[in-house]
Amino acid sequence: MATHTRRARVLRALRRLLLLAMLGGLAWLGGLFWFAASIPRTPPLPGSAEATRNTDAIVVLTGGSGRLSTGLELLADGRAHRLFVSGVYEGLEVQELLKRSRQFPGEMECCITLGYSADSTVGNAYETADWLRAQGFTSMRLVTANYHMMRSLLEFRMVIPEVEVVPHPVASPNVHLNDWWLWPGTANLLMTEYNKYIVTYARSLLASVIDSR
Q: Is residue 27 in a domain?
């Protein structure tokens, strides 16, 4: 009888764990679809308040196609007077950077600063914060991939809450957001980014609780 009772308790516990795992999986899956649907498909529309808003600086996070050329175009359009490129690999100088982006080296060379210390989004936020504070800037336009924007905004708001951040998402032609679940590469990218977003969001909640004490 005792053995039968213990076995029944174990089975009930396993059923509860299985139910919790299923509910957690459904919640994660629903969150993933929400995350994918929340990713902006296009940059700010020309003429909109976001597109024409001038800031003290433009900040580009390296690591994806189209980010640097977008940042240079925004600088040329006068959206800011300075451009900071965070997460540049060691050895890349401004003239080489401009050459790679098909810009004449003498035109904007003086207005660009490269940051070499960041190797993650957290590092990007801290590296950029140090530069912004050294310059006395209080606003910035953030240029990064559209799927990377939500997590980047969280990181930057945790590190430099006093700075106004205007998002400027860049869409990659290799990331297929429509029917993304049919594209294995895109699906894997979004799942990875979503998991990182969850961790970042949890960190931001914990930080806000600690700050409120």
A: no
Structure tokens at 197: 């977003």
34, part of any domain = no
Predicted TM-score of the model (pTM): 0.86
With respect to residue 67, please indicate whether it lies within any of the assigned structural domains. yes
Residue 83, CB half-sphere, CA atoms under 13 Å: how many?
27
Separate counts of helices (H) and strands (E) for the chain: 8, 5
Give the domain range for residue 144.
Answer: 49-170
Residue 209 domain flag: no
Beta bridge partners of 112: 83
pLDDT tens digits, one per residue of 17-33 = 888 888 988 999 999 99
Query: How does DSSP assign 13-64, residue by residue?
Result: HHHHHHHHHHHHHHHHHHHHHHHHHHS-SSPPPTTSHHHH---SEEEEE-SS
DSSP letter for 146, please: G
Number of domains in the chain: 1
Answer whether residue 190 shows pLDDT above 80: yes
CA distance 77 to 112: 14
Q: How far apart are CA 41 and CA 172, in angstroms?
A: 10
